[in-house]
Design a protein that fits this description.
It is found in: Cytoplasm. The protein is 48% helix and 17% strand. The protein is an alpha/beta fold and 460 residues long. The radius of gyration is 31 Å and the shape is elongated. The protein binds guanosine-5'-diphosphate and zinc ion. Guanosine-5'-diphosphate binds next to helix 8.
Length: 460
């Protein structure tokens, strides 16, 4: 896969400028330099600029410019690199490039210098991506993140997790080897789990921070759920302060869902009002319910409305239990406190297992109650969901790899705990290891690499 040709490109933007650079990289870079600058002294030190006359392939003088030979391996690409820092005119640069191509170099493709650096092990894939991000950055925060990645912060974090995972693999696989010698053996369960748990915790943390970054950019996704007639649309309207959703006392009329953005103390919430979350025979409503569940799985925060006058049915109890089990950030709104409650003691206990329970009367005949408290709770959670230090995962590609690793390691953990065959445990661990390796490009396929580097500009 390592390409030993010599590549050349104009590295500066098209157009006129004070300086324009033609960059050459590869084993023949020095020969290209000698061809273009016949007067280049053999003993001129590496990495040192020299004012030189550049000639084209016919021997005609093209420019007088600062030239430099940077010898391998301490160069951007890891190969010998030559730069001609010419006057920034398009004719000059074109002619210098043509001369370089006439003396043995070939035209570089997009991102090929950075790809060389990656293939030569100078940088990992996250750093290569950071080069592109750095060039593309249009905001100070995007620039800062790219700079951190270029320094290798993500790569270093991932490599640490790979090391831990590798240790777990070794523990498990050495147990397998002993098995062949018919020793009585045991995986060191605790030793393995300790490492796997640590990696899982760190990956979750990376994910959480990726989400924080997304929420900062796009807003917190909030979905309002609950049975028909619980008061979802009433709440949606109260939050939004408009009559956008149709409020009605007929069960199941919010067929589709509505989405609005509201702002609570500087944090944007994208609030969705859904059709009632209940098994329905009506086909139209069924579609709405499926979408409700889908929305719930994508929500950052669920507002769960309970109609205390109606009480809970078994479906709702099961849904609430499920929500608890899945650790979905949830605010339970116990609505219609102006009316008598039919909640059982068990139901009340179930609701109290949620961290946030707000009693309300959202559309009572008398005074509306609980709205201030609810808005206060939502504001606090929204602030928490968007706070956060350095976001490390910058691309969905990273997130996908992290998700794959989490799944595989989750299976490995279950397999260890269930005392399954070691081969299975090792398989899952190795899959996790590969997923982590993909982030930094340790095990990436050509397809992935082509996709990443094709997004670069030529000369990078
Ligand atoms: P949805 O189906 O969950 O969207 O429920 P709606 O918001 O359409 O409300 C259903 C009915 O309950 C409407 O007639 C509301 O006025 C009424 N409602 C909502 N909240 C309260 C409340 O706190 N107390 C009382 N008494 N009625 C309410
Ligand atoms: Zn509604």
């Amino acid at each position: 896969m390592i390409d030993s040709t010599t590549i050349a490109a104009i590295a500066t933007p098209a157009g006129r400028g004070g300086v324009g650079i033609v960059r050459v990289s590869g084993p023949e870079a020095r020969d290209v330099l000698r061809a273009l600058v016949p007067a280049w002294p053999d003993d001129h030190p590496s990495h040192k600029l020299r004012l030189s006359r550049i000639h084209d392939e016919h021997g005609d003088l093209v420019d007088e410019a600062l030239c430099v030979l940077m010898e391998s391996p301490h160069t951007y690409t890891g190969d010998d690199v030559v730069e001609f820092q010419c006057h920034g005119g398009p004719i000059i640069l074109r002619r210098v490039l043509d001369a370089a191509l006439a003396s043995g170099a070939r035209a570089a493709g997009p991102g090929e210098f950075t790809e060389r650096a990656f293939l030569n092990g100078r940088i990992d894939l996250t750093q290569a991506e950071a080069v592109a991000d750095l060039v593309e950055a249009t905001s100070v925060s995007a620039h800062k993140l790219a700079m951190e990645h270029l320094q290798g912060s993500l790569g270093a974090a991932i490599r640490e997790l790979r090391t831990l995972t590798m240790e777990a693999v070794t523990l498990v696989e050495s147990a397998i080897d002993f098995a062949h010698e018919e020793h009585v053996y045991q995986i060191e369960h605790d030793e393995v789990l300790q490492r796997v748990d640590k990696v899982i915790a760190e990956l979750r943390d990376l994910k959480r921070r990726f989400d924080q970054g997304r929420r900062q950019r796009e807003g917190v996704r909030v979905v309002i759920l609950g049975p028909p007639n619980a008061g979802k649309s009433t709440l949606f309207n109260a939050l939004h302060g408009s009559e956008r959703a149709i409020v009605t006392s007929i069960a199941g009329t919010t067929r589709d869902f509505l989405e609005e953005e509201i702002h609570l103390e500087g944090v944007a919430l994208r609030v969705v009002d859904t059709a009632g979350l209940r098994d329905a025979t009506d086909e139209v409503e069924q579609i709405g319910i499926e979408r409700s569940r889908e929305l719930q799985s994508k929500a950052d925060l669920v507002i769960w409305l309970v109609d205390q006058e109606q009480g809970l049915d078994d479906d709702q109890r099961r849904d609430l239990e499920e929500t608890l089990a899945r650790h979905i950030e949830t605010v339970v709104v116990r609505n219609k406190i102006d009316l008598p409650s039919t909640l059982t003691a068990d139901d009340v206990a179930l609701l109290e297992r949620f961290e946030h329970v707000v009693p309300t009367a959202l559309a009572a005949d008398g005074e509306r109650e609980g709205m201030d408290e609810l808005v206060g709770v939502l504001t606090g959670i929204a602030a928490e969901l968007t706070s956060g230090e350095g976001v490390l995962l910058s691309r969905t590609r990273h997130l996908e790899c992290v998700n794959r690793a989490l799944e595989a390691l989750g299976r490995a953990k279950e397999a260890v705990e269930a005392g399954m065959e070691h081969e299975f445990v090792a398989l899952d661990l190795r899959e996790g290891l590969d997923a982590l390796g993909d982030i930094v490009g340790q095990v990436s396929t050509d397809d992935i690499l082509n996709k990443i580097f094709s997004e670069f500009c030529v000369g990078k």
